[in-house]
Specification:
It is a single chain. By secondary structure, this protein is of the alpha+beta class. Helix content is 47%, strand content 19%. It has helices spanning 3-16, 69-82, 87-91, 95-102, 108-132; strands at 29-34, 41-50, 56-66. A hairpin with a 6-residue loop joins strand 1 and strand 2 (41-50). The termini are far apart. The structure holds FE2/S2 (inorganic) cluster (FES). FE2/S2 (inorganic) cluster is lined by residues 35, 38, 40, 67-68, 70-71, 112-113, 116.
Length: 140
């Protein structure tokens, strides 16, 4: 089976059986994004804890939303990838990381589909840091 086909099957699997598509009780961060050109929307929320080295980590993460196969599958894959990652590691994720994650080469319009969830997640984490840590760093 070709790599492309494997990626497509994985994408469809995440779309049909989304991981982490649930609400988090009393979340530490929350953010939503909306794509006005298609109406798709995604929200991501989660819990953050400081580990024994003083590093902030996302210890629970969930998403909700409605949209195209790519946007929903990307959100599912992203939440899987980010569970237990540090807040700073997540803030360093960019478009290339997302394209690698979903395994697709996309044009500018469909690129928005994979970035919607990342933008929501990063915005939520930046707001959290601004509120509770007082500093942010993020590459776009
Ligand atoms: Fe709307 Fe993909 S078509 S985000």
């Amino acid at each position: 089976m070709s790599d492309k086909k494997i990626y497509q099957e994985e994408l469809m699997d995440h779309f049909k059986y989304p991981r982490n598509k649930y609400k988090i009780e009393d979340p530490d961060f929350y953010s939503g994004q909306f794509n006005p050109s298609c109406g798709d929307k995604i929200s991501i929320e989660g819990k953050i804890e400081e580990d024994e080295n003083g590093i902030l980590r996302v210890t629970q993460i969930g998403f909700d939303g409605s949209g195209c196969v790519i946007s929903m599958a990307a959100a599912s894959m992203l939440t899987e990838k980010c569970l237990n990652k540090s807040v700073d590691e997540i803030l360093d994720l960019d478009k290339d990381d997302m394209l690698k994650l979903v395994g697709l080469n996309l044009g500018p319009i469909r690129l928005r589909c994979v970035l919607l969830c990342l933008e929501a997640l990063k915005q939520g984490l930046i707001e959290y840091k601004n509120k509770f840590v007082g500093m942010t760093r993020s590459k776009s």
